[in-house]
Amino acid sequence: MKIFASTLFLLIALQGFLVLGASAQVNLGQTDRWMKGALAAMERKDYQTANSIFRNLIDSGLPLPEEMPYYFSETLFQLGQYDNSQNFVNKYLELTGFTGQNYESATRLKEKLKVPLAQILECELCDRRGYRYESCMNCQGKKQLEQVCSYCKAKGVVGCSRCGASGMIKKVNMFNLIDFYECERCTGKGRLTCPNCSGSGKEVSSCKTCEGSGKTPSNTLCNHESPEHTLGLRK
Ligand SMILES: [Zn+2]
Ligand SMILES: [Zn+2]
Ligand SMILES: [Zn+2]
Ligand SMILES: [Zn+2]
């Protein structure tokens, strides 16, 4: 869950800071140092380091260099975070258009992303970001949860509304006296079987954690291979 939150945050941050643009000249020295560090890390194929430098840069709140989203998307591609990579390369192209220094590389990256993104789309073992699903912890993959009936609070019965749970109906007769009759609806019991749970005291509802799918994404990038397949080979 943390991943999604930070992805969204990064995109929002990116949008905000690029609007600030070069007008804020403060601390450009620090931004330059970070950019150089990240590009050097990319050069030696240390994409993990590049990734954390880029994230520091975004977290710092300093205005981002125009070319940064491109380099960040390239880094994310190398780390297998294809969906995120696509978000940033799109943002880069949207913001810089044809004028960006890395316009051609960005277009190539978009092209390169097509294959892994199509694999993610085809795979049923991962979410659309490419993160492997695991069985939902809340419902143990059952998709539904059994809980206490919310209507009768597990009693299985509810008070009869027609007779006010008394079992008797009062009627004023022609002599203006009150007669009592047994309630037809509850046959004088004053109670009815709970219409919500049919008396079981329990109700089944769709699991909210996994929205009834039985699975939640993990922090692991998917290799698009089924675990059964791997187990089968081991036997
Ligand atoms: Zn009930
Ligand atoms: Zn009744
Ligand atoms: Zn669930
Ligand atoms: Zn997959």
List the helices and strands and how they pair.
Blueprint: H1 2-20, H2 28-43, H3 47-60, H4 68-78, H5 82-96, H6 103-122, E1 131-135, E2 144-148, E3 157-159, E4 168-172, E5 178-182, E6 191-193, E7 202-206, E8 215-221, H7 227-234
Antiparallel strand pairs: 1-8, 2-7, 3-6, 4-5
The site of one zinc ion (ZN) has 8 residues, from loops.
The oligomeric state of the chains shown is single chain
Structural class: alpha+beta
Strand content: 15-25%
* Overall domain count: 2
Largest sheet: 2 strands, antiparallel
H-E order = HHHHHHEEEEEEEEH
In CATH's first tier, which class of the largest domain applies? Mainly Alpha
User: Residue ranges: pLDDT <50 for 5 or more in a row?
Assistant: 1-5, 19-24
Widest β-sheet, arrangement of strands: 1-8
How many individual helices? 7
Q: Cα-atom Rg, whole angstroms?
A: 31 Å
Shape category? elongated
CATH hierarchy: architecture of the largest domain: Alpha Horseshoe
What's the number of extended β-strand segments? 8
Bound molecules: zinc ion
**How much is the average pLDDT?**
88
Q: Find the CATH topology of the largest domain.
A: Serine Threonine Protein Phosphatase 5, Tetratricopeptide repeat
**What is the terminal separation in angstroms?**
34 Å
What do you see in this structure?
This protein is of the alpha+beta class and 235 residues long. The chain folds into two domains: 2-122, Alpha Horseshoe (Serine Threonine Protein Phosphatase 5, Tetratricopeptide repeat), CATH 1.25.40; 145-205, Chaperone, DNAj Protein, Chain A, CATH 2.10.230. It has helices at residues 2-20, 28-43, 47-60, 68-78, 82-96, 103-122, 227-234; strands at residues 131-135, 144-148, 157-159, 168-172, 178-182, 191-193, 202-206, 215-221. Helix 3 (47-60) packs across helix 4 (68-78) and helix 4 packs parallel to helix 6. The chain starts with a helix and ends with a helix. Bound molecules: zinc ion (ZN) (4 copies).
